[in-house]
Records
---
Amino acid sequence: MSMSELLNSIASPADLRQLDRKELQQVSDELRAYLLDSVSRTGGHFASNLGAVELTVALHYVFDTPNDRLVWDVGHQSYPHKILTGRRDRMNTMRKKGGLAGFPKREESEYDTFGVGHSSTSIGAALGFAEAAKLRGDDRHSIAVIGDGSMTAGQAIEALFNAGHRDVNLLVILNDNEMSISPNVGAFNNYLAKLLSGKFYNGFRNATGRVLEVAPSLKELARRGEESVKNLFSPASLFEELGFNYIGPIDGNNLDALVTTLSNIKKLKGPQFLHIVTKKGHGYKLAVADPVKYHAVTPFTPEDGMVGGKSSKVSFTHVFGDWLCDMAKQDERLIGITPAMREGSGLVRFEQEFPERYFDVGIAEQHAVTFAAGLACEGFKPVVAIYSTFLQRAYDQLIHDVALQNLDVTFAIDRAGLVGADGPTHAGSFDISYLRCIPNMALLAPADENECRQMLYTAYQHNGPAAVRYPRGSGNGTPVQAEMTALPWGKGEIRRTGSKIAILAFGTVFADALLAGEALDASVANMRFVKPLDVELIKQLAASHDLIVTVEENAVMGGAGSAVLEALAAAGIAKQVLQIGLPDAYVEHGEQKELQAECGLNAAGIEAAIRARLG
């Protein structure tokens, strides 16, 4: 991979800070070109990274990182940051096993001050850094970079409420990439931001505050005058009321404006709020034209944006999307809800066909669940489409607002199990463990694509809270039947009859469990339901086999295997049990199949684990 002249000279932000300010635009141009070349080869998050190039250069140029703490929200826009902080030569390993993580990671670099992957954590973490600096008497800045999407989450708002009235050097940068700025307005706002962040304006405001202290009515008049000027051009009132000094909005792709404004802000004390507006995909016209498509990409050809061949298999997400639309045609009570994951959760078609019954609540998982509960109270049948890792954020609402009241809400849990390149922040490693202990909650785990469709229908027909967990990507290509049939409630099925060994498979690991069963002449059951568990089937298999083996793509601790052990113990049955699942550790990023093999969740791994137990 070719490296450009200036970029090649930057091994760390300290080198960047040695450059003349006039050279920064060239650095940005080279960085954007390098990013395009790199991501087109490896895949990964793209459009948001292109939009954050100038901001990244400006931040590392103005602030003394890593002494000044820089916290990225989510981390979708952290690739330029990685390139400038000594990881340029490893970008070809991005999201591969043993390579760079797709998100900031503390173990990877001292410049990654806070590990992220989920949204809306940056302000709270940066406030923690700022308070720590104050307690220690350290002279350093704490900067949180958060997107407009992440600002929709309650956690970000909670942090803002707490941070604005703290006497700490905290800078919150709102990277708004949904608004566009016309050249004239943008130029004037850049000038206004420089003025508002400069010594004259802030010195004048502080001085007049002291001078007019003896005349409150005059002081109030001056304050209102100040606010009226700022509010003509920016949404300052909210953030000022929260205790921040609001600056902006400015063009976040204008490097000169960013450097000037950040340099001025660096001299200020107390909580500062900088509003910048960037364009997703900036510098690559295809990504600008379709930022949703180019948000996260597989390897592609930079010249035309063409990707390689795609799998002909239908993904589980697609199976869900089709089922949702088909079910909505049959039942007008069905409501589709997503916390800002329309594309990822497969609701694009549903939004188009049933717009009045489609609700995207923003990055607000807690609200999504309680909102669904309210709808259920009024006789509707909400379906919450959510990733396993994101449902964790709404656990209290799941228990108190849905399950405790036994409300009829269906949860379509995507990305259950290992997710591959996105790594441990996005893996659905715990949903079986945290769902099966909740009273009234039913949990279903399909073995293949067709069973996924039938299980969604089964869960939807159940009167009460029910969840269907399914993995990222596609299965073995099992044809999906258009007809929907409810499966026998709480019943598994024996798919192979053998001797001595009985393998109980939960979910899509069934295919590999069956292969292992054939190699070992074992009986193999597709358990289908984690809760209610088919206890009678377990007793039957325990009575006729020497070893019970449970297989699941979930943490072994508290998972489906634990449920089987509990059932055997309750029945007074002493039987040798081998639990196969995810280890008591966070599984790092890599290819999905590669990680499953590493955890022993492929046919060879299951067979080897059983042979090892048998000695």
---
Amino acid sequence: MAVEEDFAPKKKKEPSENDIRRKKIKPGNVMKAEMRPGGGDAKPSDDDQVIYHCTVRTLDGVVVESTRLEYGGKGIPIRQVLGKSKMLLGLLEGLTTMLKGEVSMFKMKPEMHYGEEDCPVSPPNSFPKEDELHFEIELIDFSKVKVVSDDLGVIKQVINDGQGWESPREPYEVKARISAKTGDGKVILSCTQGEPYSFTLGKSEVPKGLEIGIGTMTREEKAVIYVTNEYLTESTLMSVVEGFEEVHFEVELVQFTQVRDMLGDGRLIKRRVRDGKGEFPMDCPLHDSLLRVHYKGMLLNEEKTVFYDTRVDNDGQPLEFSSGEGLVPEGFEMCVRLMLPGEVALVTCPPDYAYDKFQRPANVPEGAYIQWEIELLGFEMPKDWTGMDFPTIMGEAEKIRNTGNRLFKEGKFELAKAKYEKVLREFNHVNPQDDEEGKIFVNTRNLLNLNLAACYLKSGECKKSIEYCNKVLDANPAHVKALYRRGMAYMTNGDFEEARRDFETMVKMDKSSESDAMAALQKLKQKEQEVERRVRKQFKGLFDKKPGEIAEAGTQDVEEKSSGETTSDNTKDDHGDSDGIEEEALLEDAGNAPRGRWFSSVWPTGRRLFSAVGFQRCTIL
């Protein structure tokens, strides 16, 4: 098949609009006479920017129009991009025959200038477009350029290539030396000496067109950015822009600092101070990587008080920690995970991502904003389980599961979920070799699924919790721990009959679980009574009101906070081994887990409850 494709006829490239126009040219339509030779042997081609003066005369020498001052023009040469700009057909053809500095006269028939059928350029008023004319052209310069905006309002000509691959973007902080002049060469801005101009992309501190052009540059690149008046917006750099048809900005991009708004609200900001090595994001740390960092912690006060420095307070040794284990503040880890080895970053962090939820150093006030200066020295990738023997794999799985259990007890449910899910993904490639290994494998997998069910229950995602319990029960319908946890998820979700069925099944399957099942059923009864009270209060007096008042009766706020109750749980798994998670915490929050409006907690048991309070003959619209 590949051979057939190699020898299959390839589609011809569709001709461009200019290619089609060039086919109209007939011998004798354009005649060229060189008046002054140019230099070198290079000639412009498509996609080159050409800068030229043009004077148009009748055959008897009368000037029709000109760019030159001496002939009534503005003295500003024409700047166009071959193959991109709308040009007269005779110029499109003639300019490609010229050398830099050359002056030539082109004698054009009407169909080669404004007399061309469907000419893309409109003629000036009173222009003799039906006449044969002389076009005197001086090719001042031509060069390769990058068309930055499709309408040619912003074009960049590279003078010196930059370093690296990255370009600044919003909201990067940029330092650049910038000078500017008009199309006729008048200098209007000069910042080539002294300190470079500092600004932030996206804050209108430079004209829009200049900002767009700088966004295509790399560090230490030098370029000329041509900006037409449509892109000359007022800014801190240039407060006056009226009267300029276009401005040529000469830019040297000295430095830019990567700035990332990690939360999107301007509170957790990462500024890259020094580049790292590698490609972003492929060479950044992965989840479970072992990281080595030096860092300095400072308070965001006037003195920038340093409260910890690894180089001073840790005997000069770097901090080592595994990502995803909750061992450093959340904001710290979020930023380090987006760093390259060798990179230095300055992180500004709000208290809720710093030490409000993490062990606070003694000299850090509660609610304080923090700034960390972090250097990522390097990291080690997580272990590859491929090729490990079964005992080693199960040992690694147990370590990660225990870490997940610790994170769960600390209330870091998302991190705990990531640990359990990592092991389950790795288990997809594990093949036990005998029955004993098979039992150990299945038991561990069940524990992981149950732990995930507990995480989702704590997060208020009852359906996901039930889903993971079902994975255990599909293989072992008598698994008491899974029945208990699924019953808790059903109860939290308002599915009381399903919950009761699971708790009663527990007792049938294992008499030793009777005390836990009875406690759960008691909790279930309290929940049902609570919902019944809500229903009665919600619909109290509803049917005594007039039709226009019924809507009001259904909008009263009747939410009641349920009191938490603690029930012990000594339920073990099939091998008598606890799953390592405190069930008391699950029971305490069972009545307060996040859910929708009150009606979602009533349905599908709502019909039975409506019947109990005497509304069996009512239709709920």
